[in-house]
């Protein structure tokens, strides 16, 4: 036992005990952050048994919830209670409604209060609400489109004038589209969201959004105006120049339900009474950007008082399609950080280029004033060539270009409506007069996910790496988890998503984001159980079933369960998980998955001159077998949580056969693997493929390989996420730190040293001589290698979830210093509250400060100590010799 650890822990505990003893029983507790299905006061809940969550605030140490009460009614005062429950347990996350059947499109109000283990009872929380979604029979609106065939590249406008005869009490707008929509009422946007209704498996389901628009309406004349863009539905998508993948007709569906103060109701719907025309958006495409001619603006078209001329035509009503309409389960895309232009300069080629200092995803807001007909072109790029010129070759066929034509009156601010760009630099052509820094502002646009994690150390390069990981996530979490945000791809690659999911859950609240996307995984999963390379699937039906990509069907549901304690996500995805494992079994031969196409360890390190055979090529079927085992294990884990005992027995037997077949096929009697690569040993050890008595020697072989490469990694997309985890698990923390802090190629810090502000697709996207890697696949914003963030939070800062009590109900705080770091700190906003871990090393003493949220507990393990300390909620200080 480490004496210093034990004594310091006792002193800290006693000091805090005496601090709180005098008033612990007088402490008040309260609840905060009330949510329904992860959302605050949501409007489109489809779950017939919505789930409630809250966090507890208490200054008393070791606080646990002993009891909760929920009450629910149909009025803000909850004076008529529809359902109430009082339960003696400590559950405060995702508690399912269990009352009378809820009505559709109805607002319900709820409160909670709790009692703790100290005898304190909170006050009732402020009243919260949620509104249920629409059933299919609730839709009275008709799909509408332009008259004739929708062949124009221009964005159509739709408008409807209507009269409200009385004072409005409430008004809800239900809107969706085939394509993308931007909706206005009386000249004002109904929402700050972009790219609605979002990208889903449109052939299966389309999301609708619900907006409270009471403040936008008034008694008397009103008008609705909506414009549509091609988006993912009709526009160019994928890298084979395919268009109209989901359909050839943009369409709008909208239903405005108004309740007057006297209790009467009125509904305004899309139907053949609406009018349509075209406006200033001449073309808008996800890959190519937007073309906007301000001379074609129809001033006031979306406001009252506008006079329609003969160019406004009646709309066409469309027949309803087979797709389901579903409420939102994830966050919408919104604007976030803004960046001022840092520098305007001329390149050696004479181009006018602006640097914003950060590779980001979104667009540039441009101020301009000039003669009518003046055309301004804004082109976007991530990097400059080594000569300092604007570089767009890596965009492939994507233009990433916005074109604006001035109308010649007052100064205007331009920004795209239905397109986004990935960039750090923009090139400006045709700007009238002198371009100034204040004329340009870059705005980051991504799914509206709350930042939950913070991480920093004494090493500035690691801090920049964490910055790059975070910005790689922001740029690629634009409604779906894309591979990259700039070239003609931007697809939901499954391998990237599964590799990064746990890191993503540290940085941001991705519970709703992945809940929404996993519905598309299930929807686009093939009938035979195989999972496509990209979700939503816009590739060929045969583009599916690759190891480490298709395993997203098991990996992400389990990761989300561990991160958020959401048993429901396992229940929803279990069928998909099982279908995937059964698919592998169906194509395996003698329990070996040695068939089919596999990407393998994508973009692993490849030496330029391989005369001595040192290339880190890992056999693809060997990799496939490890993921076969991993997915089977995760299916077993889920079956245990869900109480599916027959499946536990069945798949445990299968797992044993999978591992036996792996050893027979891939390992010599001495324990050497047929592919003597870092990835081979990493995956074999991470997924427990080897007998226990051979694991230590395998870990040593991994270490020897790392040392043989001069403390460089050679792993690709599948080996990299687990590399440092395996080294730490088997006692080689020093090697993990040597890899993490390696500054020369290939390494995580090489791009940082080269000036990266996001994660690169390739370890050497920019080579040491300043030249570029192959242009057809060289993104500078590609988060997969950012999966190291998971290890940084867990091992450097020491914040770990415990799968037996998921969602950080139980926390393992076990920092493992190394790499000459003198301090590190991190915090994570969990579903129970904020977890903090902060440490310093000075004069041979390791000092650790830990904060645990109420209704949670933690196990603390100090470095070089052999004792665990169990703590409850509160703040603690520990010290030990180091």
Concise synopsis of the structure shown:
The chain has 882 residues and is of the alpha+beta class.
Number of helices: 15
Estimate the mean pLDDT confidence.
95
Number of strands: 45
Radius of gyration from the CA trace? 29 Å
Task: Return residue spans where pLDDT drops below 50 for at least 5 consecutive residues.
Answer: 1-26
Strand proportion, as a percent range, falls in 25-35%
- In whole angstroms, how far apart are the ends? 14 Å
Assign an overall shape.
globular
Residues in helices, as a percent range: 10-25%
Major pleated sheet: 11 strands, mixed
What class, by secondary structure content? Answer: alpha+beta
What structural keywords apply?
single chain, 882 residues, alpha+beta, eleven-stranded mixed sheet, 15 helices, 45 strands, 23% helix, globular, disordered N terminus
Secondary structure blueprint with pairings:
Blueprint: H1 3-21, E1 30-36, E2 51-57, E3 65-73, E4 81-87, E5 95-96, E6 107-116, E7 128-131, E8 143-145, E9 156-164, E10 168-178, E11 180-185, E12 188-189, E13 193-194, E14 205-207, E15 209-212, E16 220-229, H2 231-234, E17 251-260, E18 265-269, E19 275-278, E20 281-285, E21 289-293, E22 313-314, E23 316-318, E24 324-326, E25 333-340, E26 343-346, E27 352-368, E28 375-381, E29 383-384, E30 390-391, E31 401-405, E32 412-414, E33 421-429, E34 440-447, E35 453-457, H3 460-476, E36 477-478, E37 480-481, H4 494-507, H5 511-524, H6 552-564, H7 567-587, H8 620-642, H9 645-666, H10 678-686, H11 695-708, H12 720-729, H13 733-740, H14 749-753, H15 788-797, E38 799-801, E39 810-813, E40 823-829, E41 834-842, E42 845-852, E43 857-861, E44 868-871, E45 874-881
Helix pairs in contact: 4-6, 4-15, 5-6, 5-7, 6-7, 6-8, 7-8, 8-9, 8-10, 10-11, 10-12, 12-13, 12-15
